[in-house]
């Protein structure tokens, strides 16, 4: 890439409580489309999380410590404002269901109207559509093994 070409950066926002193999798949597939992905953990005081913000940041950073194309950050502002702050021209989102599509489309339309930042959506791979952070949290709450639902090497 010449110094004149702008780096194509995508923001991948979410709570990631915890980060799942579905999220990991989206990051890997997204890296085929952009130069860099900023996994961005939104701070939402209204949401009760299982893992602390610090623990989520540390676990995901550790997972991607050898990949210079992935950064992991936290933010407490509008997603599009944070995207601009980190130089992202895109927002990466994944959808599992039709309901996800309706929600994501509405937000993408508003974000584009406000800032011009485009959202690209990747469909969850069929083998991951049943996996969600909320299901993994529920399994953890009851002491079940969640290793098949989280990335290998993710330290919860």
From TrEMBL:
EC number: 2.7.7.3
Pathway the protein contributes to: Cofactor biosynthesis; coenzyme A biosynthesis; CoA from (R)-pantothenate: step 4/5
Binding-site residues for substrate, renumbered to this chain: 15, 47, 79, 93
SUPFAM superfamilies, per the entry: Nucleotidylyl transferase
Domain Cytidyltransferase-like residue range list: 11-138
Residues carrying the site annotation Transition state stabilizer: 23
Keywords: ATP-binding, Coenzyme A biosynthesis, Cytoplasm, Magnesium, Nucleotide-binding, Nucleotidyltransferase, Transferase
Signal peptide: none
GO annotation, biological process: coenzyme A biosynthetic process
Reaction catalysed by this enzyme: (R)-4'-phosphopantetheine + ATP + H(+) = 3'-dephospho-CoA + diphosphate
Cofactor annotation: Mg(2+)
Localization per Swiss-Prot or TrEMBL: Cytoplasm
Pfam family, one: CTP_transf_like
PANTHER family per UniProt: PHOSPHOPANTETHEINE ADENYLYLTRANSFERASE
Subunit structure: Homohexamer.
Family: Belongs to the bacterial CoaD family.
Name assigned to this protein: Phosphopantetheine adenylyltransferase
Organism: Candidatus Parabacteroides intestinigallinarum
